[in-house]
Design brief:
Elements lengths: L1 H5 L3 H4 L18 H18 L11 E4 L2 E4 L5 H19 L24
Helix pairs in contact: 3-4
Length: about 120
């Protein structure tokens, strides 16, 4: 979904980005892209609280003319997981112009400051 919306491979370009993209988050987000990831972390945290298996639940979606459509089939968790991923994909697309290559592979030890609440 992220690749289709941004043209970037998520694992290579966003997994190791800033202070909040990838697993977990630490400190204040560095830019708009990092804020997208923080928001995504919050979305996943809410789903985990509701008992969803965010790493193993699967969902179906389609993209037509740049519009992401999550399937209405599947469990509530699967539909909500798709909604979280749709939101981050659109956010990352919206902030492509401010994507900063210097924040790729950013050292998490340099992430300081207040972690924003969800």
């Amino acid at each position: 979904m992220v690749r289709r919306m941004t043209g970037k491979i998520a694992f290579l370009n966003y997994w190791p980005y800033g202070c909040h993209c990838g697993l977990g988050g630490k400190g204040t987000p560095k830019d708009a892209t990092d804020w997208c990831c923080h928001k995504h972390d919050c979305c996943y945290a809410h789903l985990k609280t509701d008992g969803c298996r965010i790493m193993t639940d699967n969902y179906k979606y389609s993209i037509s003319q740049g519009v992401i459509q999550c399937s209405d089939k599947g469990s509530w968790c699967e539909r909500e997981l798709c909604a979280c991923d749709k939101e981050v994909a659109l956010c990352l697309k919206q902030n492509l112009d401010s994507y900063n290559k210097r924040l790729r592979y950013y050292w998490r030890s340099r992430c300081t400051g207040h972690i924003p609440t969800c």
